[in-house]
Amino acid sequence: MFELNIDPESLKPKLPNRSDLKPYPVSCYLEYRGHEDAVTSVSVEASGQRIASGVDDILDSLGQDVLLLNTGRGNEEIQKMTKELLSVEMPVPDDSGKTASSVSWLQDDKLEGIRLRHSKKIIRVYDLVKEGKLVRKLETGLREVSSIAVHPSLCVNCTLIYLGCTVYAGDHIIVGSREGKLCWFNMDLSSKPYKTLKLHQKDINNVCFHRSYPLFATCSDDCTAYVFHGMVYSDLNQNPLIVPLEILQGHSSTNGRGIMDCKFHPRQPWLFTAGADSVVRLYCH
């Protein structure tokens, strides 16, 4: 018999040096104060010149319902198309032709939108253009999904919906959970996670991708935000490259809550975080 002497370290994937992956946010540059209560959401204007923050989510779930609302943006033709999409007359059937028992689509005349009522915490992909046809179900293996983000390479014909979020569906998505875990899905290859990472000690409250830089971030009630390099390749045979970059700290815990929301600047490698300590922080490179 031949005995092979293999160094276990040689079997580990070789990750690039973090300094070669710059720029990415590393330290707090500004603090925005003014709120007296927990800041639950932050949103960055498309040009990156202004931000909005509030104690209520800008567009959120209500209990187990998901609300699809018209933002009022766009010209007359876009508004007409939007209103047509946000109009349902009956429950939408699933892919078997039967009305889905775990989710129902209801017209909300008061809010002029659609209310999706979930009875189960799962991820479903729908094509709204094709009358809300169910495209795919994703198996997270998580106890409770808390947040979701879609890679910027978008498929504009589909909409992905889960308990508490509605977004356009791309090939890759990340999902945060109440147990501090993150799942990365490559929907072209599998309905199961490509990778599951245990990151935070408490609930993950939000996850987000940067629009142009290969960055994504998570934020949690443990008062930290994690920043990752996440490169997606056009070659379908090449797996995404995921590299942990930085753990951002500075928020203080209030009533057991930490960082409630995080959003990237649309143009710069900067990250905004909203805290239960009533502070919004800007982290820069």
UniProtKB/TrEMBL annotation:
<dbReference type="InterPro" id="IPR015943">
    <property type="entry name" value="WD40/YVTN_repeat-like_dom_sf"/>
</dbReference>
<dbReference type="InterPro" id="IPR001680">
    <property type="entry name" value="WD40_rpt"/>
</dbReference>
<dbReference type="GO" id="GO:0000463">
    <property type="term" value="P:maturation of LSU-rRNA from tricistronic rRNA transcript (SSU-rRNA, 5.8S rRNA, LSU-rRNA)"/>
</dbReference>
<dbReference type="InterPro" id="IPR028598">
    <property type="entry name" value="BOP1/Erb1"/>
</dbReference>
<protein>
    <submittedName>
        <fullName>Ribosome biogenesis protein BOP1 homolog</fullName>
    </submittedName>
</protein>
<dbReference type="GO" id="GO:0043021">
    <property type="term" value="F:ribonucleoprotein complex binding"/>
</dbReference>
<dbReference type="GO" id="GO:0030687">
    <property type="term" value="C:preribosome, large subunit precursor"/>
</dbReference>
<dbReference type="Pfam" id="PF00400">
    <property type="entry name" value="WD40"/>
</dbReference>
<dbReference type="GO" id="GO:0070545">
    <property type="term" value="C:PeBoW complex"/>
</dbReference>
<dbReference type="InterPro" id="IPR036322">
    <property type="entry name" value="WD40_repeat_dom_sf"/>
</dbReference>
